[in-house]
Amino acid sequence: MGLKKYCLFLYLLLLSSTLLAQQPQKPSSVEIYHQIQKLNFLGSVLYVAAHPDDENTRLISYMANHVKARTGYLSITRGDGGQNLIGTELRELLGVIRTQELIEARKIDGGEQFFTRANDFGFSKVPDETLKIWNKNQVLEDMVYIIRKFKPDVIINRFDHRSPGTTHGHHTSSAMLSIELYDVVNDSSIYPEQLKYTSIWQPKRLFFNTSWWFYGGKDKFDKADKSKLNNFDMGVYYPTFGKSNQEIAALSRSRHQSQGFGSTGSRGDEIEYLELIKGEAAKDNKNIFEGIDTSWNRVKGGASIGSLITQIEKDFDFKNPSASIPKLIEAYSLIQKLDDEHWKKIKTEEIKKIIAGCAGLFLEAVADSQSSTPGSTLKVKLEAINRSSQKMVLNGINSKPASMTTFSITPLENNRPYFVEMELILDKNQAYTAPYWLKEQGTVGMYAVSNQENIGIPDIIRTISVTFMVEINGVVIPFEREVIYKFNDEVKGEVYKPFDVVPVATSSILDKVKIFNSDKSKTVGVKIKAGKDNVIGNAFLTTAQGWKVSPESIPFQINKKGGETTVYFEVTPPKNSSEITASSYMVVDDEKLDKEQINIQYEHIAQQQVLVNSEAKFNKLDIVTTNEKIAYIMGAGDEIPLYLTQMGYEVSVIKPEEITTENLTNFQVVILGIRAYNTVEELAFKQQILFDFVKNGNTMIVQYNTTGKFTVKELAPFPLKISRDRVTEEDAEVRFLAPNHKILNFPNKITSDDFKGWVQEQGLYYPNEWDATFTAILSSNDKDEKPKNGGLLVAQYGKGYYIYTGLSFFRELPAGVAGAYRLFANMISIGTKTN
To answer: Residue 788 gets which letter from DSSP?
Structure first.
């Protein structure tokens, strides 16, 4: 498969994975009954860890579904610094994916999701480094704010605050910060500005969720004294769900698809252990809420509500849930009279869902298109239907923004749908739909969020909505619904997507990194997409001093919304080496539009629109390349083939089944993508062909794989063992172990300057044992650690060369790091004969 076909393949794959999105809730009688039980429990627990996937989904499910507690997960970061097994998105875009995966996970296990502003900048070995790159005070401030808002009775840390250096520095930091805030969250002099939006709070207990992992093995844990630990059996079976607690937890954890955490559910007894770190010990070590009033008696005026809900639960008719509506309306009215704003808000939303579920009340607001621009008119079709014998009236419809459509009070009779169309006029200054944490310029370690009230909110904040004012037994209840978009797909059926506000036009520089290895000009394409019909404007490409762009601007016209056109500029680099950020923008009706639209679409999460500045890295490099033809075998997913093409190489992405001796005769170099030996099962049957390819005088380059499961018995023609060694400090000193080796000298002379400007990390999962046939080329290490020499290993095998590298080229090439390009060119050229 050539590079163009590869790009088309990715595009078609993206189209085929369009989300069936967020189906509206249509709860069964069993689910409604479960909601009523939770309505009668006023206790909360917050689980705290560092990343998506750190959470104990078994424990979250147990607390939410068995204990019936309001259960939250506070992930300090959005997982931006990890790897991606389902696509090529990295950094902030990966954070967007993992945010949605956590949101979907919580829908399954019953929890709620929260985040701080901390950016997952990559692996950190010690908390000191973590808290130096994060703004410790801001992360602590966010955690305090979230706890004051959520008001947990109990906090549970995933990690041990007493063992720095034994796990990811982010992990230990999450626990250390949790311990620190426990004693100040109730102090009004700490972050007093937060009290405009919430109130102080004091949790009753803080636990550490210990396990055999923290004891160094299951054998040691089995022998340890656990008499002082809280413990309970999480192997609960829920007959109403038809699943064990572990099966629900496995479904939740399997939402973490970008990390390859598909999980198989288990059944039977399973004990969970908690170690009390702060607060008063419970007399009953199987009940973390022991001594805490979790009934309605904890709020003034709540006793009568609790009695009423208890009666509703007792009398619930699974065949006729609507019979509970009159008493639910009574309970709703009583909740509205509470002085306790915290529980009033929570329980109001809970009981509204129950009332709608009991009535089979379906309310929906569907836009006529998936997106609109500020200042435009949006047509929305409303549907309301009451599928019960309970009498109710739709006596008002409110919208944001307001609608000019007139409305008449309408009875909602049993099973008779009501439809009405309305027009919403979007404000000219209406904010674009985008992750709020990406709208402001942040730092390596922190996102910038200036609005205090947004702190902790997990998802994109959507403001286009319709509120149905439904009157039942004389009580008017507002049911708010976000405006969404849906259509019918001939294969998938009813497909839902979120509604987005988009710019009038967006642009994208086609090559995110453009390499200039001579003084000659190159053509740079800028793709423009229209957010509405009839967009006319001028496109611009800006560079830095010394670079020339021709022409100065290019006029364009796009007649249809969603239509695209590409304009081309000629860019001439300066004579000397130069690395710049180029930008594209358009002027339409005197408005400057400088955003690029990125739509993230996967089946298991809601479609996400991300708007970023339309930019690309232009590099005038002192780089020499040779003429090898490259076969690239994709692993977990990366974009390196695109950047190799930028360097001037002819690259073909080939499928595993296309790896044959005959097919490989067309190439001089085979490159395996990241984690190929972890993810591509077919390589088990192709490894000898690849080794023979090397033996016959060619080059094979293998990029990093993780420890654990491999799809092949041997990674290399000679013994090679992968470890968890890594160099996380991207600016760590690099020492040359074999300075005269060809790979450091041809066709480019590699110096220490080539390791300047690396991003996030130098490399990961280095080999720590290898055959003497290998030559170790580089050595580096993080502060206060022993040298790591396995980042780049070269062995001659027969007439060719086998190269294994843990260097993070998959991050450095997209970032436009000049030295990474030069070194990769040398790896490719190692088999080229020199004079």
So the answer is: B
pLDDT at 835: 54
Segment holding 615, helix H or strand E:
strand 615-620
Run of H or E residues at 809? helix 809-812
Q: How far apart are the first and last CA of the chain?
A: 34
Taking phi over 0 as left and psi of -120 to 50 as alpha, with beta for the rest, 650 belongs to: beta
pLDDT at 167: 87
Residue 596 pairs in a beta bridge with 612
Q: Quick one: angle between helices 91-109 and 245-253, nearest 10?
A: 160
- What is the widest separation between alpha-carbon atoms in the chain? 94
Residues in the chain: 835
Q: Which of 209, 237, 130 is nearest to 177 (CA)?
A: 130
Question: Would strands 465-472 and 475-482 be described as parallel, antiparallel, or unpaired?
Answer: antiparallel
| The dihedral formed by the CA atoms of 588, 589, 592 and 597, expressed in degrees to the nearest 10 | -40
**58 within 8 A of 249, measured Cβ to Cβ:** yes
Report yes or no: 364 and 484 within 8 Å, Cβ to Cβ. yes
Q: In the block, which residue shows the tokens 């049911």?
A: 479
Distance CA 601, CA 492 (A): 15
The alpha carbon dihedral of 20, 22, 28, 33 has a sign of: positive
* Structure-token pair, residue 240: 């109403």
Task: For residues 596 and 590, give the distance between their C-alpha atoms in angstroms, rounded to a whole number.
Answer: 19
Report the distance separating Cα 184 and Cα 361, nearest Å. 44
Q: Is 245 helix (H, G, I), strand (E, B) or coil?
A: helix
DSSP designation for 783? T
What is the enclosing helix (H) or strand (E) of 467?
strand 465-472
Amino acid, single-letter form, for residue 816: G
Cis before 551 (ω within 30): yes
Q: What is this structure's pTM?
A: 0.89
Residue-wise pLDDT for 39-55, tens only, equals: 999 999 999 999 998 99
Residue with tokens 């992992």: 213
Q: Quote the pLDDT of residue 7.
A: 40
DSSP letter string, 560-595: STT-EEEEEEEEE--SS-EEEEEEEEEEETTEEE-E
Q: Which long-range contacts (CB under 8 A, 24 or more apart) does 130-135 make?
A: 130/169, 130/170, 130/172, 130/173, 131/173, 133/444, 133/445, 134/173, 134/445, 134/446, 135/443, 135/445, 135/446
Neighbours of 432 (CB within 10 A): 18
**Residue 222 pLDDT:** 86
Asked whether 97 and 602 are in contact (CB, 8 A), the reply is yes
Residue 273 half-sphere exposure toward CB, CA atoms < 13 A: 16
The helix/strand/coil state of 692 is helix
Residues 366/380, Cβ–Cβ less than 8 Å: yes
The set of residues, in sequence order, having a beta carbon less than 8 Å from that of 147 and lying 6+ positions away, is 46, 155, 181, 185, 201, 203
The angle, 0 to 180 degrees and rounded to 10, between the axes of the packed helices 341-359 and 325-336 is 160
Burial class from Cβ neighbours inside 10 Å (0-12, 13-18, 19+) for residue 121 reads buried
| Dihedrals phi, psi of 605, to nearest 5 degrees | -135, 165
Which parts of the chain sit beneath pLDDT 50? 1, 3-21
Say what the pLDDT of residue 10 is: 37
Whose structure tokens read 């199987």?
286
153 bridge partner residues: none
3-state SS, one letter per residue, for 144-167: HHHHHHHCCCEEEECCCCCCCCCC
Q: Virtual CA dihedral for 821, 822, 825, 829, nearest 10 degrees? A: -170
Cβ-count burial 595-633 (b if 16+ within 10 Å, e if not): bbbbebbbebbbbbbbbbebbbbbbbbebebbebebbbb
Q: What is the pLDDT of residue 221?
A: 87
Pairing of the two strands 154-157 and 205-208 = parallel
The predicted structure's pLDDT at residue 22: 60
Cα Rg of the chain, angstroms: 29
CA angle 714, 675, 697 (to 5 degrees): 55
